[in-house]
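Batch manifest line 420
LIGAND: nicotinamide-adenine-dinucleotide
JOB: complex structure
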Amino acid sequence: MPSNAPAANPFETAKQQIDIVADLIGISSGVREVLKHPKRELTVNFPVRMDDGSYQVYTGYRVQYNMARGPSKGGIRYHPGVTLDEVRALAAWMTWKCAVVNIPYGGAKGGVIVDPKKLSVGELERLTRRYATEIAPIIGPEMDIPAPDVYTDSQTMAWIMDTYSMLKGYSVPGVVTGKPISIGGSEGRGEATGRGCAYVIREAAKDAGVKIKGGTVAVQGFGNAGSIAAKILYDEQGAKICAASDTKGGIWNADGFNPHAVEAHKHKTGSVVGFPGAKSISNEDILETKVDVLIPAALENVLTAKNANKVQAKIVAEAANGPTLPEADKVFFEKKITVLPDILANAGGVTVSYFEWAQNIQGYFWTLREVNDRLERTMVESYQAVHKVAVERKVHNRTAAYVVGVSRVVDAIRIRGLYP
Ligand code: NAD
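JOB STATUS: finished
ARTIFACT:
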């Protein structure tokens, strides 16, 4: 249900979602209140020395939403539009996502109000190191483990890992995930979101009676998540990738194209547009093309009441966070289109983040094969758990995924009991 995110206040939306699920599965008012409150919130205002010698004060947050199932996990976002309520909502959604894939984590999120594009690399490093120092008292491998999110990356994680390690006096790789491999990152982390998405599509296709071998696929947003999902569906499942797009526009070829070649073209020219042998298609039309599988992998709120009726795909797999509005969900349910909700379809990333942390704690690293096999098992089991609830309760997969995730959190809260 992160798809409801466009509402003026995303945290209000997140709380409404909790009520919907709580009504459905019968959660007591006390536990319901626990679910609607972040466990711990930290706001930090901190100065950064700019390249010209001046100081600039920035505001950042770290919200640990729920830790009933284990240490909290969630990315850090650098964006001028960050608000505390947005961070709270994202932290709540991380809680349910981790529970859906049944990894032993709670949910968290962090953010700094900043436009990183306006900062030099040096300024960005100083901002990151100071923010990491400010939140250091509440992060750590046993407590809360950040990861990359919007406008943060493996370099940001390396700076946080180094800063935290300097404060401790020894190297602590398990304090963050999404690190470069050279300092304890995991094999397979970079492609985990797209790969996990492809596994879930494969499983859903079996239940929906859709043939992926020779079946057609459209990808809106040929970036990390979208291009990797496309390549794996093409390489390992024999799908035909017929449409792809990015900010500059889209391409279409009914006979399909090789996504590796499209990626090379994008690498060379900066866009998928102009790929030889393909017709152009708009970012709106790509959502309405006649394909078996549609993968929105770019933006929020692209599937709406306006275009939902025109969607012809049999499966919509949300590699992006929040691409579908609730009105569109209703239409898809009525039209029997299988929706694979974001908290399931893009959970491969956090799953391999968990594997990275597990490897860091063991100090023993797995092969790419081991990582991918474990990812596959997790995604298949998670899909099956969600599908079972959807069938039993006659609800769509999004509600089913929330039922699975929230129920697991509630079980942990109940069995642990109320302290003191
Ligand atoms: P990315 O920046 O690598 O790729 C995004 C792609 O979308 C780019 O090709 C970009 O050109 C395209 N795009 C942007 N605006 C567009 C527009 N208006 N129309 C069409 N295309 C547009 O980002 P990513 O990491 O692949 O993330 C994409 C989505 O997946 C986001 O919603 C993100 O939250 C979600 N997600 C990603 C991960 C991950 O591990 N990468 C994990 C979970 C969720």
